[in-house]
Input
Amino acid sequence: MTQKTVLLVGATGALGDLIARELKNRGVALRLLVREKSRSKLAADLAEYAESIVDDEPGIFDGVDTVVSAVQGATGTIVDAQLAWLRAAREAGVRRFIPSDYSMNLFGLGDGDNIHSDFRREFARRAEEEKGDVELVHVLNGGFLDRGVLFGFLDAIDLEKNEANLWGDGNETMEFTTFADTAAYTAAAAVDDRAVPNFLYVAGDQLTFHGLVSETEAGLGRSLTLVQRGTMAEMDAEINRRTADQSTRMSAVPLMYWRAMLSGKGGAGELQNSRYPDIKPQSVREYAAAIAQGTAYSPYMS
Output
């Protein structure tokens, strides 16, 4: 396999840093698009390894095989900026573009179900019209299996209280993947010589809520108390109540993500882990055991 050239946007973020390292391990010629004001956030070893570090210079897309985006933001970044990069990639003859999705299956949601997913679907709709011959690959990994996300931001399982918070019946299948494994699958897709599916579904585990609780308990070595927060209709009402008040609006965001997963709307299509058999993703039980041992990686917790 000839050496690939990959342009990564967003290498200063937690996931972007991991993707950069996975690409480095795969021996790519790595270009980084990093704004001047963000250069200080870039890891020194990645800066040393990178073929180039630029800020939207002419010709940055020339000779690139794949563009990988790991940026965060609202419409100005997720829609406008990513579309500008896609157009530049198309004009330069780039083969593949991986936008910054990295979530549950946001394409199963309706507009308004999750405001952050709305931005990404808007990009996807417009990108399909403008991509030309560029392969557009959406990496969909479910919820992040992480102390700061599944066991934090989403308030799915509270490790301090030993409680598991359920809305609805908990019978829908959900996907969970660590940051590290998401980065590994993204890097593998970036350098894949084969055509990659438009929607790349990958996961470290597929479980219902009840399976999530039992696997977490097995890994932690302790029991969790199930707390029934309400029905899905009551969850909808709680989200609406929070979004109606400016002071509580942001607290509705994690509930929107958790609703998308618990409702089944964000469920994946057929998993495609087998495309990359060299990646052995961490399961919920394994990650929970790492939490118990104090060795669980999380970019959002010290």
In short: The two ends are 39 Å apart (CA to CA). The first helix runs from residue 14 to 25. The chain has ten helices and 14 strands.
